């Protein structure tokens, strides 16, 4: 469609009839169009207008309507209260106001026309499309909308929530879209739809003073929330569910390459990592590594390279690794199973009822990657297809495979049809949720490593950030993508260390490792080798030390993840989530908080120079022990062995022993930060205090020999 919300017809009903009004909500007809208002928690209301098509597909986990404490109706206007939230909805005007704790946090569009009235109406509609517009305050930032690689503040951006194979991290299109956004001003909005949605957030070509949402559907289904950013993310999790826990071994280091060409090549890498005492928990075989490309993907080993899969898996496990295998939910027309699956109706269909054959654009593959075969798309709306797909996986898990890399999932064309009657218009965005849920449910330890995602996908961890370019911009964009995913309710994230395509130099490679050390999951991957010995002895030494630090941080990361996922919060947080009232914090898109107590400022430019913003509070440099009183801005030039890492005054950081595998990490003791830090009362060993000389150097370069027992403080 030619996207112009100002060309839509302003919706101002001539007749409004309130049919029901009470604690359970309000139901009205406006020119015959149904309108419903209900509470879904002490800080959430749901507004439905029209008749949205499509299905929920399990996006909403277990939402339960809440009772309004009071509802008053006057003409076509409604005032409803729940907890500290008040919503005023006037269907005759129409307009809306959201009041939280006595303060208006959101109101409908105020963008007026010189002739009188509104230039941008609150509600408008066209054929198969609705729009809704809200006013933005001067300078008001807005965050969310899934994994996006540009500036975290969406103000001024036009964002389309439509999952795509982004072929990189260099533009607005992305693999993980979530039509959920929020403002530190105290409001959040979740558009409950699987249709394509467009979000003009102070987008100047539409209105620099308005947030305009355009949904390509026959109605609107909006959840409006109020509170602090943390409370809004928790309210979103109340609607869409909380992320599942992950096994400890998944917090270790994943090794991958695009791709290991033979079984012996992958085993050689696995042995070399152990020989060089470089940590590693998971070995990943990418798509071309274990499958025959022309006939994939029914999860059958390429027997020309793997004549005895069971023996290969046993060898990997004997080296102390978990095995991860690549997949996608498409079956080549050259597969021997394709005719049978087509006959059973296991694929999405075209308008004539024939299996929809997806033909890949050959342009992105070039000489680098193998072109993909024309393929049928598994219809995962059918329970029988899901059961069949899960059984194929269970055969692999019975061999000892631990987890699947669930790649792709973005390829559902709008003119494809599912057995339930939905077209790609509504199935496209939901498909990654169905795909990853099916595999996650079949996996013994409940884990996937997924590229595509939508609202609700965060319940089925974990995701990684697609295919970044191997340069400094690719590193910075990958960090923003992960932080953006966290601002949209996703607690877990990983990215391709070193970048996916291109060859990083040693400096970039090290800086990527250092930044990735603090994310929930950590994977090396790319189209050229990403093992550290390919970058020289000096780089290998630094990377080995940082991976050792990763192992030692696992108790802190694990405890933080347990706490934050229950709150609906990410492990790694952009500064505006933690310091929403600090305008300076909004300017530092690559600086982040890990858990509650660590602040990390990755180096994202060559030469080691970095600008660090420390928000309010007392912060200790974990390299020097120096204390800074925030807010404070400083610049450092970091040697290759370091990036800036700070800890809050009073933090008590659990530190593990060095180990080659995450499962082997035992608690070594706690690191105290500042005079306000109180040691534990349970007998846990105190390694030392940062302000008394126990710094990261001890953990980083001395910790490889085992525990680091410094003088207690």
Automatic annotation (TrEMBL):
Residues 36-198 form the Glycoside hydrolase family 31 N-terminal domain. CDD domains: GH31_N, GH31_xylosidase_YicI. It comes from the Bacteria. It comes from Thermus scotoductus. PANTHER family: HYDROLASE, PUTATIVE (AFU_ORTHOLOGUE AFUA_1G03140)-RELATED, MALTASE-GLUCOAMYLASE. Belongs to the glycosyl hydrolase 31 family. Keywords: Glycosidase, Hydrolase. Residues 568-653 form the Glycosyl hydrolase family 31 C-terminal domain. GO terms for biological process: carbohydrate metabolic process. Pfam families: Gal_mutarotas_2, Glyco_hydro_31_2nd, Glyco_hydro_31_3rd. Residues 245-557 form the Glycoside hydrolase family 31 TIM barrel domain. SUPFAM superfamilies: (Trans)glycosidases, Galactose mutarotase-like, Glycosyl hydrolase domain. One of its GO terms (molecular function) is carbohydrate binding. This is Alpha-xylosidase. The keyword Amino-acid biosynthesis does not apply. InterPro entries: Gal_mutarotase_sf_dom, GH, Glyco_hydro_31_C, Glyco_hydro_31_N_dom, Glyco_hydro_31_TIM, Glyco_hydro_b, Glycosyl_Hydrolase_31. The keyword Transferase does not apply.
